[in-house]
Amino acid sequence: MLWVKWTALVWVNAILGLVFANLGNDWSYDLGVILGICIFIPIYVMIDNHAIKSNNHILQKSLLNGVIIRAMTQSIGIVDIWAGLVATSMVGTIGEGGLFVGFALTVITGIILSGVVAILTGLLVLIMTAVKHKKSH
After folding, report:
1. Would you say residue 93 has pLDDT above 70?
2. pTM metric for this prediction
3. Which of 5, 24, 84, 115 has the fewest C-beta atoms lying within 10 Å of its C-beta?
């Protein structure tokens, strides 16, 4: 079930990026984008699985909420556009299309956006831990 959950959440978080990805012009570029997105699914599955196995409900809930909040920030667009521009400036010198360019752009953008998720998750862990601590006293 974790695989279904994180496949859906990762793809939901990629919606705005897909709009700007210039898909449909080059099948190898499109494949690179798809593979780049899919790289993040097992990463989130492993983190969530670790939280479950270590009985860390706060991390599990914080990660889920962090990813959902990050997905909602797509409506603002600033974070996603900035991440895409950074990725484009880094990858732009190696070409304009093809599997590697699509993959590299997507992975770099995903790393930046996963950094946003990490920050949100960390903040939520701190808040939830403080609330739990306050309730126990």
Report:
1. no
2. 0.90
3. 24
